[in-house]
Design a protein that fits this description.
mainly beta, 4-stranded parallel beta sheet, about 30% strand, 3-stranded parallel beta sheet
Length: about 140
């Protein structure tokens, strides 16, 4: 088995459609989600001060490709796919290119003092979006 060259939410390129009968992509995908700081309550005494109150951190050293789609949930809220999330002081570091191909998706989201560091290129486009009528209203694709 060859090592993977990318971090992906799907094994191959898929089509994201709002129409469930033709959709191939996941809904509400998150590739990396880091939240909070270290709480040493259950850490051994000899290690507790080393991590105390340090941010939870995820380091990604390969390119990231996300094809996840968005979909309205039962409360009519759009459930978007987000490639990288840093929340509540959590940190995500992406060393290479990050690509979001699903329609209405978000490449990076930092909230509640979270941090996302993208050191490579950032690409956000509707590249995996279907061209059907149901999907088109969520894209910038004009046909």
């Amino acid at each position: 088995m060859q090592p993977k060259t990318e971090i992906r939410d799907a094994a191959t390129d898929v089509t994201s459609s709002y129409d469930d009968t033709v959709n191939q992509a996941a809904t509400g995908t998150v590739v990396a989600y880091s939240t909070g700081v270290w709480n040493n309550t259950n850490m051994p005494w000899w290690n507790s001060s080393r991590f105390s109150n340090k941010p939870s951190e995820i380091n990604l050293y390969k390119p990231v490709v996300m094809t996840g789609r968005a979909k309205l949930d039962s409360s009519n809220k759009l459930n978007r796919s987000v490639a990288l999330i840093g929340d509540s002081k959590g940190v995500v570091n992406a060393e290479k290119k990050v690509t979001a191909l699903g329609y209405s998706s978000i490449v990076a989201l930092a909230q509640n003092n979270g941090v996302v560091n993208a050191k490579g290129d950032i690409v956000a486009k509707d590249g995996a979006a279907a061209h059907d009528d149901a999907t088109r209203v969520f894209t910038y694709i004009i046909i």
